[in-house]
Amino acid sequence: MTESSADATNTEKGVNLDSNILISDSKRRRSNRKGRQVRESINYLKILKSSPTIIVDCSFDDKHSDRNVKSLVVQLSISYSVIRKSSLPFTMIICGVSERLRKGLTKTNAEKWLGVTITQRNLDLVLKDFRNRNIVYLSADSDDHLDLSSEVRYTSDDIFIVGGLIDRNKYKDLCKYRAIELELKTSHLPISESGIKLNNNYVLAINHVIGSLVKYNEFLDWSKALKYILPKRKSL
Fold first, then answer.
1. Cα gap 159→156, rounded to integer Å
2. Which of helix, strand or coil describes residue 185?
3. Which of 78, 87, 148, 154 has the fewest beta carbons closer than 10 A?
4. Hey, is 226 helix, strand or coil?
5. Domains of the chain: total
6. Inter-residue contact 72 to 164 (CB < 8 Å)
7. CATH, residue 102
8. pTM for the whole thing?
9. What is the domain extent for residue 92?
C-alpha cells in the first residue's frame, strides 16, 4: 500500500469514527429527550388529580354548520394549549361529540391530548361521575356571576361546564336553558363586575372562557385574568 493510499484509508476510518460518534450522540439526545417528556407527562397527570374540571358540552351539533364545527375544533385546540401550558392545569372533558366533531378533532391528534376525555356521552350521563361536586354551567345569559371576593383557588371539587356552541348570539339563552333543564346552577364570568367593559357584548369564544378560568386560578384576580386573555380589540 502506498503512503497516499494509507493516508486515504486512515482518513476514511476517521470519518467513519466521527460519524458513529455523531449518530451515537444523536440517539442519546433523542433518548434523553423522550425520557424527559415521559417524566413531564407523568408529573402533569399527577397535578391533574387535584385539579378542577372543565366540561365542554358539545351537544349542539344540530345548530352547527360544517364551518361552525371547524371553528369549534379550533377553539377547543386553543383551549387545550392554554391548559397544557398552565402551571395549574384543568382536566377537560369534551362530551356530546358528534361524528363530524370527532373527525375534526382526530385531525388535530386530540386523542393524544393529556388529561382530556373525548366522549359521545351527553352531559347528563357525564355528570353522574361528579356527584356531590360544585357544578356550575357558565352562561353569559345567567343572572349570577362567579364569586369575586373569595380569592380561593378552584380544586377537584369544582366542575365548570362551558357550552360548546358557536355563534351564541344567534341562540341566546340556549346554554342557560340547558342548565335549567338539568337543574344546574348557572353563572357568568365576572367581566363587568371586574370593571372591564367590552366593545360589543359579553358573549365570549369558548377558548376565552376556558382561558379566563385557567388564568384566574393562577392569578387569583379576575381583572388580571380577563385582561390577560381577552383580545385588546374586544375590550374598551
1. 7
2. strand
3. 87
4. helix
5. 2
6. yes
7. 3.40.1280.30
8. 0.84
9. 51-229
